[in-house]
Amino acid sequence: MATRRDPAACARLAVAGLKAHPLDLAQLPALGPLADCRRLVLAFPPGIRRGQGDSYLAMLAHLRDGLAGTAVENILLVSSTGALAEQDANLDEQSPADPQSPLAQAEAALLQDRRYQSSVIRMAGLFGPGRYPGRFLAGKEGLPRGAAPVNLIHQADAIGLCLAVLEQGRWGQVFHGVAPVAYRRDQFYTQAARLAGLAEPVFVDQQGGKRVLGDWTAKTLGYQYQVPDPLAWCQGAASGVEC
């Protein structure tokens, strides 16, 4: 069963043959529709850039408390690499999260909740059909951190990693979902925009940033990325042949 906040989105899922139920967690609703599920995958935006970090934590607490004692045994939280502090370094699954991040606080609260067996998977920036990365920064000027690595993941691999965790029953762990091939931020977004015939972005400095690593995740899950190279995918998408 799937849930969406928008009833119209639920209707579209129903047309596709999926059982869907409207559920707006921001309203802290009754959770009856989820009570018979054994495993939950939680994937909804925290709204941190809009100052909604506290609401995100409240929604997750409402879920954990409201589903205690029901059929729910396992929870997989789809988090973000934003839980890791911005720094010029390589950060893997064992690197400490940013304690000030609502994402990191949500992860810790879930993993410490003994009412469930849970895991966290931190996803890098999502790309794929309908989300061509060349459009993300096209035409923008004054952009910082030109030398920072680009951390991205194709939606097929985001789904594939979630399925691997669920199918293998890997609980009590933190995973990273990030394509293994990385580029500099200025090089990648300039080339991706150029491939699509879009205005190129302009970067004003060559500062670095964090490179998120997912080698341990791939090895532990025995997972092989379907789209390991984001720029190669952009080249295929721009030519009309997605790879």
TrEMBL record:
<dbReference type="GO" id="GO:0005737">
    <property type="term" value="C:cytoplasm"/>
</dbReference>
<dbReference type="InterPro" id="IPR051783">
    <property type="entry name" value="NAD(P)-dependent_oxidoreduct"/>
</dbReference>
<protein>
    <submittedName>
        <fullName>6-phosphogluconate dehydrogenase</fullName>
    </submittedName>
</protein>
<dbReference type="InterPro" id="IPR036291">
    <property type="entry name" value="NAD(P)-bd_dom_sf"/>
</dbReference>
<dbReference type="GO" id="GO:0004029">
    <property type="term" value="F:aldehyde dehydrogenase (NAD+) activity"/>
</dbReference>
